Fold these 2 entries.
Entry 1:
Amino acid sequence: MPDRLPPLTALRAFDAAARHMSFARAAGELNVTPAALSFQIKSLEDHLGQPLFRRLNRAVELTAAGRILAPGAAEGFQTLSAAWLQTRRLRDNRTLTVTAGPAFTAKWLAPRFYDFARAHPDIDLRFSAGLRIMDFERDEIDVAIRFGLGPDPGLFAEPLAVEWLTPVMTPELAKRYPTPDDLSSAPLLFDDSLDFLDTKCDWAAWFRAAGMDFVPHHGVQFSQADHAIDAALAGAGVVLGRRALVVKDLDECRLVAPYRLALTLDAQFRFLCPEGLQERPHIKAFRKWIWSEIEKTANISEGLQLVAAKDVPPA
């Protein structure tokens, strides 16, 4: 039996037949006749020196050799297809597909993307909002903005601005609750989206950092950060606002942060793309634009007393 690989067309025919367990359906997928597909598989079996299928009356089934070959053939073609698509996409500098969480998309990207589109009319920007970890090759993603600690093996990973949490509310509510002590009687909103972090970054931690022995137990809870912020914008209460998600509302005075004490997080938003692709023109332009937008509101962090959440004494 020769060691060299058999023809790719024969392996392709086997892969399709093994997946469908039908020569007719496999032939339909490959747009060839059943006779042509059967010939390819027979040539593969001759190359191997043993059968890959048992031909039954109205069906086929894999032999022991076929069961060994099938998963490797399927994985090989999947890998080859992904590599081919990724290679073809290297020629496409017009379409930029970005994935980010729903909150970051709603509160950071969506309100700003018009400026990027106006500055780069030659780039078609596409957003895919979701928390599912996406595969850059399989899902044809160019850039991901993700929140967490990493690590991000095999990827170009660039942390964005330091993330902090501080109480934010409408200017009207700030007049009613001018000091941290007043928060004990304020309607508090709970953002549960950070519960996955090992270091607690909740209301109880913020009050301890402020030197207050107060543990809130009542308030409306939200699983999505942007929903909690929307409730605060509506005047429903006070929320621990995350920098990236409230900075635009703070800059435009829809929300205020009157107490100046903020908890910093180890976790950060990160700009991610496959290693080596960060210099592609459309990815480089998007990355540069993100940093320019961050710089526009950098003044919001000035004057804050930053306390690392991990350094807050436990309860």
Entry 2:
Amino acid sequence: MNRIDRLNAILIHLQGKKRVTAQQIADRFDISLRSVYRDIKALDEAGVPVIGEAGIGYSIMEGYRLPPVMFTSEEAQSILLAGKFAEKFTSPTVKKQFESALFKIKAVLRATDKENIEKLEETVLVMGPVSGRYEGENKYLSDLQRAIIDKKSIRIDYQKLYADKSDRIVEPIGLCYYAGAWHCIAWCTLRNDYRDFKISRIQSLEITDISFETDRHPSIKEYIERMRTEETLREIVIRIKKEMMPFIHQHKYYYGFVSEELLGDYVRITFLNGFPDTFCRWILMFTDKVIIESPQSIKNTVQALCKTLHQHYSAS
């Protein structure tokens, strides 16, 4: 960050709090205390009414207001992602307030940035709650947003679970948050089909100069709906004894946890899962403590696994 940007950021920081110490400013911007004192002096000389109280900190004189803040495209995109979570997991009142704040933010954006935000809104989908577990870094989330907006193919080095890394060139069509992690849905030129890439497993990413047309791809919502229709992604509903919940608290996110509700001695849990065999093997560990509500195909798979298990141990 250059000094002009830092001075502006310090001013915003001061106006956002009642009082800020020099050490807090130094920690916030990773600068020395000497640099803080120089920056405060520069703001004062520029006519900003900074009040400094020895041993207490700095504040801005009551009544002073900054001109409208200009957001960068990246900052606006980050706020949009936060808004997607607010829309899904907050109360109607908070949702309405956030929408109002986002509208004001859009009002101060440049025309091109407004257009980019509108494009991005259609390509981001949040489908499940935020998990408390660590899913690895999502350091390429911002790059993926840029590639989607600019309609550029990306080259990724992707690490599949328990498999070798593979080099892919893909056309990203959208970002989706489900099963406790961010995923990039993209057309894979290697597989000649759409693929779901967990962003935390992307080892490296490069935005290429290769453009692609979005018209030939479905929207992120259309893709997810297609997966549900084809049962590539299916909704699974189970009831599990309440005393079992501590044993599945974190594991449920790996299997596409969507929601849960308390029903007496049971908890009804809804999942969105694309690997039914793996899911069935997981819930078998809870034996008679779990009831499968739907779909019938999951019940059939569990019954078949139980029969195989019985034959296996009978033979032993």
